[in-house]
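Local shape tokens

___
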Amino acid sequence: MFGLGPFEMVVIGVIAVVLFGGNLPEVARKLGGSYREFRRGLNEVQQQFRLAEYEAKKTFTADDSKPTSGSNDEDDDEEVTGPKAPKFTPPA
């Protein structure tokens, strides 16, 4: 766990008992509650990013699939297809 061996875990446990003594269960409970709140806040931020990403993708795909106007005006066709260059005729 966390790259710690059994000896290191025992040493950390002994230090925790010496420092906190009888308050160790209360300290562990507070630490667990703080960790839970941190994870909850992190999940909310991730959810907001996912929602923003979804909305951005939805907007871009809606712009790509947007139908063009129904008029058959030649000027509109040129704008949609892009500029046209004159045909090249080689010298004779």
